[in-house]
Design brief:
Order of helices and strands: HEEHHHHHHHHHEEHHHHHHHHHH
Shape: elongated
Strand content: under 5%
CATH superfamily of the largest domain: Intergrase catalytic core
Structural class: mainly alpha
Radius of gyration: 26 Å
Number of strands: 4
Distance between the termini: 71 Å
Largest sheet: 2 strands, antiparallel
Strand order of the largest sheet: 1-2
Number of helices: 20
Number of domains: 3
CATH architecture of the largest domain: Orthogonal Bundle
Helix content: 40-55%
Length: about 400
């Protein structure tokens, strides 16, 4: 029987019956960001080390420094020989050093265990980053409305595996029901309550979906309602559909990381990608990054700071402090200029909408309403004011020029 690390280390929440583990948890919660994901990964590292040495955590911290160093070196050697990358081993080593540091091994008593050399760009696991065309093909052969929506959602938002699995239906409900072309997705710290690693580093940011992804979401949500009933705001956007779960429970059961990997790999295989085994969810995040770096529908390029923000990265130096995150509609307009491979006519219409949005920026006038009124005036055979449409034309030109 496999014993979970919490049970082995006698952990409940952020406390442990072992004083040494309790010291580590208190450090992670109060001196660091208090991340559940960090708690889990540090706990697993200490657990694995205890199993390897056959000693309990409080026994380990009572040993001599030289004896501990030998045990840590042996543990890291076995992980490296077992196929772990140098980066993984070094990360484990850092966590073990932290465990001993918070238990008094600092200053002259600090552990002196050499880390492994990590060559630049070295990987133990190969990966294949799909092109935009291949990613779109993956969506079209994904096998279900849910899986198609997942692929397009990941492609157009660049969300990490854990973040995507933590998005709730209530997060997108309002804009989805309004048929918004580019739906706002807010990444926030509360997502950690659903999936512990959902908001990496507690970095909150916003991104949007492509129009095609929004349409795929609408089809999926309509089909889900038909099969499973009304969707509550607190239910997950992409939930588990395991047949062993009662229907009323499926909406609150997150997909596992492995389930999402299978969905992506299977879609890559069906899409005819030769290296489909090397396509993982994070690869679609890199495809999204390539879209951000590419030319826009109007031939320009997205500002570098906006690119980094849409990726959920912290901007260098003071740029992060001065980056304006408050103008959601302005960012939505910038996002709408990205090229996700839709028809040329649609891309041209997006350019037109973006131009109108810029023309009426900060005026309080809804650009969508301007377009609707303009179309009505142009298509109307009779009007009491024949010069109105020409006036709108000139206003657009004047505002656009300014």
């Amino acid at each position: 029987m496999v014993v979970r690390w919490e049970a082995y280390l006698r952990v409940s929440g952020w406390t442990s019956e072992y004083q040494s583990v309790n010291n580590l948890l208190r450090y992670l919660k109060n001196r660091k960001i208090g991340s559940e994901a960090s708690r889990d990964i540090y706990g697993r590292a200490v657990h694995a080390f205890c199993l390897h040495t056959g000693k309990l955590p409080d026994e380990l911290v009572s040993m001599k420094k030289t004896d501990i160093e030998k045990l840590v070196e042996d543990f890291c050697y076995h992980k490296k020989e077992g196929g772990c990358s140098a980066r993984t081993v070094n990360t484990t080593l850092f966590m073990l050093k932290t465990f001993f540091k918070v238990n008094g091994f600092k200053g002259n008593e600090k552990l002196e265990v050499e880390s492994y050399h990590q060559p630049a760009r070295a990987r133990t696991r190969n990966e294949y980053i799909p092109t935009l065309e291949e990613a779109r093909r993956m969506a079209n052969v994904a096998g279900s409305l849910r899986n198609r929506a997942i692929i397009l959602f990941m492609l157009s938002t660049g969300l990490r595996n854990s973040t995507l699995r933590a998005v709730l239906y209530g997060d997108i409900k309002e804009e989805l029901e309004k048929d918004t072309a580019n739906i706002l997705i807010r990444v926030h710290a509360d997502m950690k309550k659903v999936v512990s690693s959902a908001c990496k580093g507690n970095i909150e940011y916003s991104v949007f979906t492509s129009q095609e992804a929004a349409e795929a979401l609408q089809l999926y949500v309509a089909d889900r309602r038909r099969r499973l009933g009304e969707i509550q705001d607190q239910e997950l956007l992409f939930c588990s559909e395991h047949n062993r779960l009662a229907r009323r429970l499926r909406g609150c059961k997150p997909l596992t990381s492995r389930e999402l990997q299978i969905i992506v790999k299977e879609a890559a295989r069906k899409a005819g990608i030769k290296e489909w085994m090397n396509v993982v969810p994070h690869c679609l995040r890199k495809t999204f990054e390539s879209v951000l770096r590419s030319r826009l529908t109007d031939g320009g390029r997205l500002d570098v700071k906006t690119q980094e923000y849409f990726m959920g990265h912290i901007l260098a130096g003071s740029m992060d402090t001065y980056f304006d995150r408050s103008k959601v509609e302005r960012m939505r307009t910038q996002y709408s200029r990205l090229k996700f491979g839709r028809a040329t006519v649609e891309n041209k219409f997006k350019v037109l909408k973006a131009a109108i949005a810029r023309a009426f920026e900060d005026t309080g006038i809804d650009p969508e309403q301007v377009i609707e009124e303009y179309v009505k005036l142009k298509s109307s055979p009779k009007t009491d004011h024949p010069n109105i449409s020409s006036k709108i034309d000139s206003d657009l030109i004047i505002r656009g020029g300014n």
